[in-house]
Amino acid sequence: MTRPVRLPTGHRWLVVDVETSGLRSSTHRVLSVAALALREDGSVERELVTLLNPGCDPGPVHIHNLTPQRLAGAPRFEEVAKDLLELLDGRTLVAHNASFDYGFLDAEIRRAGMTMPTRQRLCTLALSRRLEIDVPNHKLSTLAAHWKVRQNRAHDAYDDALVLTEVFAHSASLAESLRLPLPVVGCADRRAVYPDRIPRVESPWRNPGRLDPGTGLVQGMKLVISGSTDVPRLALAARLAAAGLDVMNSVSRQTSVVVCNDPHSSSAKARRAVADGIPVLTESQLGEMLQHVMPGEPKAAATPSEGRKYRPPETVASEKPWHGRRVLIVGGSHSDSVLMRSRIVQLGAKPSVNLSAGVTDVLVLDGGELDPRMDRVSARQLPLLTATDVNTALDPAAPRDEVPQVEAVASLEPIRPQWVAPLLARGEVIDLPPQTTSLTVNASWRAHVEGDAFDVDVVALLFGEDGRVGCDEDFLFYNSPTSADGTVELSCDGSSEQGVRIELTALHSDYQCVSVSAAIGGDRTFGELGPISVTVDAPDHTIATFVLDAGTTERTMHFAEIYRRAGRWRLRAVGQGYEYDLATLATEYGVMVDD
Known about the structure:
Layout: E1 13-20, E2 30-38, E3 44-51, H1 61-64, H2 68-71, H3 77-88, E4 92-95, H4 98-111, E5 120-123, H5 124-131, H6 140-146, H7 157-178, E6 184-186, E7 222-226, H8 233-242, E8 246-248, E9 257-260, H9 268-276, E10 280-281, H10 283-289, H11 313-317, E11 326-330, H12 334-346, E12 350-352, E13 361-364, H13 374-379, E14 384-385, H14 387-394, E15 429-431, E16 438-444, E17 456-463, E18 475-476, E19 488-494, E20 497-503, E21 513-520, H15 526-529, E22 532-537, E23 542-548, E24 556-565, E25 568-578, H16 582-588
Parallel strand pairs: 1-4, 4-5, 7-8, 7-9, 9-10, 11-12, 11-13, 13-14
Antiparallel strand pairs: 1-2, 2-3, 5-6, 15-25, 16-20, 16-22, 17-18, 17-21, 19-20, 21-24, 22-23, 24-25
């Protein structure tokens, strides 16, 4: 550490960074690991830093520079696992995108026949988002530049861990000054499960429907393999894909045929096929039919979008007078707060859900002067607004309401954030920038202290043309967080921050829409939770942001939709809620939910 610091008490912190051969912990391996156990002053008490020989291809060498030659003499993971477990035991893991690092370490430790001892983790990416630091993105290199931390070798596990130690110290100190709880989450509460699946290959043919034994196989048919096979499953799937067939991982109403060597199989896939009247073939029968696959009907080419074109952020946002402001509302009833937030959005300002570093103004409604955060507001000399200020800004000619005035603590013009994204209204739709290849839909809400957090689950539903899921695997939730091909993935790295990553260019053409939704556990509602802040982020910048706060008695809510329209991707800010639970939400869109 280059500066004296004091880390938050109540935890024994362990900063971790791993470099890996790929993105999926079920199939890829850890190539290097750096684990730094920290004292309260931020200095390193103990450390474990080593390269690892994964026994496989190291993957993207152009990123991590770990060639097979460099790794050849390194120890295997199981050789260092015992020492690593001693460091992890009893400590709270800190990492940037912590679910990634935790997931890889957990997978490696399981392969070594051991159990991950870590019970809690903190993601510095989630912490940075919670603080609303004025940066274009929340990459580690960007945060290092913001905090003036020297970074010598990006994607080197040891250097990244050292940089992250300083970034964490500065971020945690700022959170403490704002009295924002740290986004510490329990590891066992949301254990990611990544089953091995057949990789999906894009089929250029339309699905002709169920198998007709008289006609035989037709290119574009959707096949599902169930149970053991004579030919290795992945090799069989590759052969089917090469023949123009679409190999799926689970049975749906769109399935053309199920391949199963055991006609009396009790597998869920076989049972569902029989119940739905889907033909079942043995591997031998399939082999005979593969010799005469009929040509399919090509999918229609997409046409250019005729919708409203994407406009750069500065064009959209600069039209409104309060562009760049972030306003925190304190006090007032639920209905008063909802009304004021809608008017703040009309003015071009973003309502903030927390007293973060990005807040520029505070709107004080009835009783707001008693909010426990007001002493922090005074300490930061943030300008105070009244409802009259908002109403007058909307319509300067209107008579001023008889509303008690709150004296501002400072007359200084607030500092406007440098990085401001377009602010959408509920129901608004925009075209995504044509160059967008991937994005993350991030949802956040007011941070509560540990032990008092709401049990919120962000989920994703992958819809076909009919607005329903094709199979159960198209419903992503905390225990099944990744789509079959890895193009859509959930992240849960904060007590009030969750997101959905979408690889748009790799998303299968069967999927016309990704709906990002959420459900609240127990008897609590979105009215109790309060406003939801949603940002849609490309890797280097925020595409758009919006705040949803119309919830009252709803227990589930659709946040956003990313959907195709005439060959282009579009974003809709939804905000539609329902009083039923998560299971009902899933079944409404075609998911079969076990009792």
